[in-house]
Amino acid sequence: MDDKTVVKTVVRVSGVSIISNIILSLLKLLAGVFGRSMAMLSDAIHSLSDVFSTIIVIIGVKMAKKEEDSDHQYGHDRMESLASLALGAILFLTGALLIYEGIKKIYLGEEISTPGSIALIAAVVSIVAKEGMYWYTKKAADRIHSDALRADAWHHRSDALSSIGSLIGVAGAMLGVKILDPVMAGIIGLVIIKVAYDIVKEAVDKMVDKACDEEIVRAMKELVLSVEGVEGLDLIKTRMFGTKMYVDIEISADGNLLLKQSHEIAEAVHDNIEKQFAGVKHCTVHVNPAGYEHKKLP
């Protein structure tokens, strides 16, 4: 899929997310105020953070898909990972704020109001809407292989989970267990922090040249050894560069072959890797004469 299509997809999906989150934020805010629910107000803050995080996703993906230039000869792919980091930071701060507010409400002995039915209705509407947005965004993210968009999808899922927490808190408080409202606000915060941790960890892995999954590497090894003329695989190294993969390979071939013949074998390995693995941005292949002593394949 070309970069223009990727950017268009991200902008389209993100536009739907922004409009949906603005509407939901206003609904939850009104429900929280008039329904006197701390959990619902916390949920409204979470939805509002979704708007800003989605804008970050759009900026990050657009920057990541910029053409290579003299200052960035390997492209800008890591910009998408930076967008994911920013998204994770926003989620973490949101979660921490919700936990703080819940603890303050409980331990300072502030009066806890009994929520109204409007907060209950808003929670149900939010759960359905946010879970739908999760699947809509995730499907697009999987199609274009976008980590930032996938992180945004999980932001929708975390919002759906927080709305479930709001529903429990509101329902419990309406049944007389008022403390359940701020307790659920704190639990929602913990769930959001866990999602933030997962997003940040994945982004960091892709910024520090973490190797590709073992399953992908195993498939690459099998593909290399299947190429005619390859007598052995001496070395294979992989690294993540944003959402793309870089691969370095050393193969063994008959030492008596002409340079042109060795080059053709290497070219076949190179082309097969880049064609069969869509996430590979660049593959480098070096040919050693068979029997050449080399460090063992890890």
Walk me through what this model shows.
By secondary structure, the protein is mainly alpha-helical. 67% of the residues lie in helices and 10% in strands. It has 8 helices and 3 strands, in the order αααααααββαβ. It has a 3-stranded mixed sheet with strand order 1-2-3, with helices on one face. A hairpin with a 2-residue loop joins strand 1 and strand 2 (244-253). The chain is elongated and about 85 Å long. The model has no long low-confidence stretch (mean pLDDT 81).
- The parts where pLDDT drops under 50 for at least 5 residues are none
Provide the succession of SSEs. HHHHHHHEEHE
Structural class: mainly alpha
Kindly report the oligomeric state of this protein.
single chain
How many runs of DSSP E, i.e. beta strands? 3
The proportion of residues forming helix, as a percent range, comes to 55-70%
> Which strand-content bin applies to the residues?
5-15%
Number of helices: 8
Distance between the termini: 33 Å
C-alpha-based Rg, rounded: 25 Å
Give the mean pLDDT. Answer: 81
Anisotropy-based shape: elongated
Largest sheet: 3 strands, mixed
**Strand order, largest beta sheet:** 1-2-3
